[in-house]
Amino acid sequence: MTFRRSKRVRESESDDADEDEVVAAFLLYVEMIRRQHMAYGHLRNCVESVISYYVHLRGGVNEIFNHEIPQVKFQPQMICEKWFAQHFRFSHHEMDRVVLALLNAGFPSVVRTKTRDKCGLYEAVCMMCFKYAFPMRLGTMVRTFGSSTCRMSRIVSSLRRLIFARFRDSITHPKVLSPQKLDVFCAAVKQKSGFGSCFGFIDGTVRTICKPSALQGPMYNGKDRRHALKYQGVTTPDGMFLQLAGPWPGSRHDQFMVRESGIVEYLEAIPRRACDGAVYCIYADQGYSQAFGIETPYFDGAVNAQHEAFNQCMASSRITVEWAFGEIVTKWQSTDFSQAQQLLSNRKIGQVYVVAGVLCNLLNTLHPNNTSKYFGVQPPPLEVYMATACSPAAM
After folding, report:
1. 3 pLDDT tier (thresholds 50, 70, 90)
2. Which one of 42, 61, 67, 106 is most buried, by most CB atoms within 10 A?
3. 95-118 tens-digit pLDDT
4. Which domain does 367 fall in, by range?
5. Are residues 289 and 227 in the same domain?
6. Burial 158-190 (b: 16+ CB within 10 A, else e)
7. Is residue 350 in some structural domain?
8. Is the N-terminal amide bond of 368 cis, ω within 30° of 0?
9. Phi/psi of residue 133, each to 5°?
């Protein structure tokens, strides 16, 4: 006999099964939501702990608010004259003249970086001068310029490359000076030392760098016992850098820099003096050897009183080239901060030093330096220097 369930019993069993499936699905959904909430809570706790540690590391919420979140824009007109000249090396009026001269020389009114940052030329020049004047961190500049550190770094680098590209030819391979200007320079040197054929002075400088991870041997300067880069400069009695070549490894000799810089070819291209047919020359110290257009001290000064007197007179004038190198270090102190002079980095320390020399020339055109005052020769006006030194290369 076969037992058959009634229709009502079958429907009640079906309803119970459906209810069990619904309850199981609901419990599965609740468990999934609980796990999601646990994951979100764990993530929230991790983020909060990271933020708390970061706030503690940066000095508190107020420091983050002041240094990392720009709240004000750069307003140079609100800065007093003394503070402006101290931190930018140019006064308000001088900065206006420099930016106007750059614009007239073909510089763009807006500096653009590779990541499409935009900045006005005036603000970009102020950023670069502020960064090079002292060895400071970019975070310190946030309060002044109201911009992020990454953006300011990219803007300063772009403007540095732009200035180096436009002034590289004139500062490393200068044009031949006119006979009138050469005679003025020779007369100024003759008035101080009695030597009437010298129009400039040449010397090299050693700039300390961090100990590199590679090329330690070539970069080591045995005389000063440090890792360094070397530059060669030629200055004139008006206090201007006629040439600033380099950098070279610290182990290189001065004669190597003379050959590589092309200064001998430059001197050979200068015509002789019209009055007596003598050769225009530059004066060097005993580290150099005599070449065409390069005069050095007499080596028999210890036994020849006349030669010793000549050496002493010329030494008092040749020291002006040391003043020029000291001007770079004094005005743009970031070039002397050896901890930041990293050879194998993206800072381009060679470009920075050459650009600092160009900035010294710009400063000298606005207010003469000690060399110009010592010889009594006025430097060229800013507009004249920009017209002759700035290359018309494509931007």
Report:
1. very low
2. 67
3. 999 999 999 999 999 999 998 889
4. 173-389
5. yes
6. bbbebbbebbbebbeebeebeeeebbbbbebbe
7. yes
8. no
9. -65, -35
